[in-house]
Design brief:
5 domains; seven-stranded antiparallel beta sheet; OB fold (Dihydrolipoamide Acetyltransferase, E2P); D-amino Acid Aminotransferase, Chain A, domain 1
């Protein structure tokens, strides 16, 4: 059952999947942490549990079936020779012991390796004949970003190796910013900001945490900036097969050390299981004595031969697990509960607290998410509250310390009007959030423009939050359409705007007119439409005009787009205000680039929509989806009148079988389908599946 008895499993699974995709996008693309590690991990575990309980409802593109992450479009793509997978997590001794029990039956020996889990950015380094030739981020595990030029500027990364007899070597590890470097950088940036009068593009950057600092420093366009940030690197794995040199993980780390790589000095071989818990407890207590952030430990099987026997799932190896620290907790005074207004008008309550040091940094504010969360925790202004942070910059208010509650504190009431514009704050039936009903609310307008110009959307360099707020206050722009009406003469007349910066800004605006349709859709701030849904919509409809004229039924048939998103999209384009906005943008030369549908002509499934229910032997969820696409088909997650074929695997979903029978859709079993994909049997000769 779902946590809320009034919410169906399918709705809860869609909600969790959409949340995780949003968090992934913020973390891996924007370098922003908008949720704690703990809440993220718990949501993933909750989604996985629901998928295990209701396998027929699992989305083929579920976040649980892939590695989290994205490759930034600003960098060249790199396809990894060996997938860079994520790790499964354990949050308690019982969960770790369950993992140890699972792997015990597969091992000839129980020798394990204990490593600290560095909170940085996973990196792949490729050396040929002892020379560093490529550096790539993890990305989505299959495709990452080429950041070779920036990594070349990091002194801690070896550029040449002493043993050039190794023809090719792929080393993986963690790029991180030492806490000492992080503190020096932020102190210098804050000092410069006191009297800063330069352009927004050159504004000194103050980072939220060392992980974001490391990630952001690797994505700057000027490698000399990367060099100044003082980044460091710990090597933790040889990715390619070097059986002639080593047959165990611990030996491979010693080899890396001999080759000149920095290997974390706190790695230990484990002979007895109790050593794991002893080491874990010691580092949990002393984690802040290190010059780098850690959020737990990683336990790995040492023998490569044993690892090969155990294999991997689609997203994580079975021979390793991350053992996470529990969240740190502190108490502080809840001074006030305020409300902020976002780009969609969502009104989010947040706590203003007496600053307290927790999880490595000082915290004074924390989101409270929505009215129900505040009520469930019974938070009242004047309470002493428990605050925690799971190795991440985002804090969470756990609840009040009732024994310390002063008499007379009243229950907090959600405001009825917007604190920015005074309009009604409305909460629709079935919605967890309140929204400001005024589309022209200043807070909404500014946030929408900032989002539209941001990197994952239209990527208009030079149009950051400070500049947007200034233009809005001056009356130069009121919405995103006004971006395309900015005047050179007006801009150069403003203080701190020179000819060069104005020209650069206008050139960026001009380039954005023909941005890909998927990024344009992301920028429009359509409720419930993030990067994943935008990609799907752009691929399906091809042009903005076609999408604007689509019906709810047509939009809901798009893979990964359910009825809630479909209704939101159609309502957005039908609304008079947004329709006028788009018309003004088109009149000013905005013409998003069409996204052509990628159909493989002549493929075994060319032009056909295929739904898979249950497991197909030899394929992961992602694997079967890709296999369908490779032969020209479209993989859909639900059966509809437009479905051409249902593949029935092991433990199929009864609802999909029933609907396919009702619609007289052709069905084949997983074995027959495998023969089709291998080219052994043509589609018209496949044996029909009989339920």
């Amino acid at each position: 059952m779902t946590e809320n008895a009034n919410v169906s499993p399918k709705t809860e699974m869609e909600r969790l999947a959409n949340l995780i995709r949003q968090w992934d996008h913020a973390y891996y693309v924007l370098n922003e942490s908008i949720v704690s590690d703990f809440e993220y991990d718990q949501s993933v575990m909750r989604l996985k549990a629901l998928e295990d309980q209701f396998p027929e409802l699992k989305d083929l593109e579920s976040p649980t079936a892939r590695v989290s992450g994205y490759a930034d479009l600003a960098f060249s793509e790199v396809r990894h020779s060996y997938p860079m997978q994520s790790l499964d997590n354990a949050f308690s001794r019982e969960e770790l012991e369950a993992w140890l029990k699972r792997i015990g039956a597969d091992l000839d020996q129980k020798r394990l390796v204990f490593e600290l889990k560095i909170d940085g950015l996973a990196m792949s380094l490729t050396y040929r004949s002892g020379v560093l030739v490529r550096a790539a981020t993890r990305g989505d595990g299959t495709v990452g970003e080429d950041v070779t030029a920036n990594v070349m500027a990091i002194d801690a990364v070896p550029k040449t190796l002493p043993d050039s007899e190794i023809e090719e070597l792929e080393v993986r590890g963690e790029i991180y910013m030492p806490l000492s470097s992080f503190e020096r950088h932020n102190e210098a940036a804050i000092a410069k900001l006191k009297n800063y009068e330069g352009s927004a593009a050159d504004r000194p950057k103050v980072f939220a945490n060392p992980r974001n600092a490391a990630s952001g420093s690797l994505r700057v366009k000027d490698p000399s900036v990367t060099r100044q940030r003082g980044l460091a690197f710990f090597a933790y794995q040889i990715a390619n097969d070097l059986q002639n040199l080593t047959d165990s993980h611990y030996e491979s780390l010693q080899l890396l050390s001999r080759l000149g790589f920095s290997v974390n000095p706190n790695i230990r071989l484990i002979e007895e299981v109790d050593e794991i818990f002893s080491l874990f407890g010691r580092w949990e207590e002393n984690r802040h004595s290190l010059d780098y952030d850690i959020d737990g430990a990683v336990i790995k099987v040492d023998s490569f031969a044993d690892r090969a026997k155990m294999g991997s799932t689609s997203r994580a190896p079975r021979w390793a697990i991350a053992y996470k620290f529990p969240p740190e907790e502190k108490t502080t005074l809840l001074e006030d509960i305020l409300v902020s207004i976002g780009k969609t008008g969502r009104a989010t309550p947040f706590a203003k607290m007496t600053p307290v040091f927790v999880g490595g940094s000082e915290v004074a504010m924390a989101t409270l998410h929505n009215q129900d969360q505040v009520r469930a925790k019974d938070l009242r202004v004047g309470d002493i509250v428990r605050l925690r942070k799971a190795g991440d910059v985002i804090p969470e208010v756990m609840g009040p310390v009732l024994a310390m509650r002063p008499e007379g504190l009243v229950e907090w009431q959600f405001p009825k009007v917007c604190p920015e514009c005074g309009s009604e704050l409305r909460r629709d039936e079935g919605d967890a959030d309140h929204y400001c009903v005024n589309y022209r609310c200043p807070a909404q307008a500014v946030a929408r423009i900032v989002h539209f110009a941001s990197r994952p959307a239209l990527d208009i360099e030079g149009l950051g939050e400070t500049i947007v707020k200034r233009f809005f206050d001056l009356g130069i722009i009121a919405d995103v359409a006004d971006i395309y009406n900015l005047d050179y003469e007006i801009l150069v007349s403003l203080d701190r705007f020179g000819e060069k910066s104005v020209t650069t800004l206008l050139q960026a605006i001009e380039r954005s007119k023909t941005a890909p349709l998927n990024r344009f859709l992301v920028g429009l701030t359509i409720r419930h439409v993030g990067s994943v849904a935008a990609d799907a919509l752009a691929s399906r409809f091809g042009t903005l005009e076609t999408l604007r004229n689509a019906t709810v039924e047509e939009v809901s048939e798009v893979e990964g787009v359910g009825p809630i998103i479909a209704r939101s999209v159609v309502d957005f384009f039908a609304h008079e205000t947004t329709s006028d906005l788009l018309d003004r943008m088109l009149q000013r030369g905005v013409a998003p680039s069409p996204i052509a549908q990628k159909a493989i002509q002549g493929g075994a499934l060319a032009g056909l929509t295929v739904v898979v229910t249950g497991g197909v032997d030899g394929f992961s969820r992602d694997g079967i989806t890709q296999a369908i696409k490779d032969v020209g088909g479209k993989a859909a997650s639900s059966v509809s009148a437009k479905t051409h074929l249902l593949v029935v695997g092991e433990n199929p979903g009864a609802s999909k079988l029933k609907k396919a029978q009702e619609l007289s859709i052709r069905m084949v079993d997983g074995v027959s389908f495998g023969k089709l994909l291998s080219g052994e049997t043509p589609l018209d000769q496949l044996e029909e599946y009989a339920p």
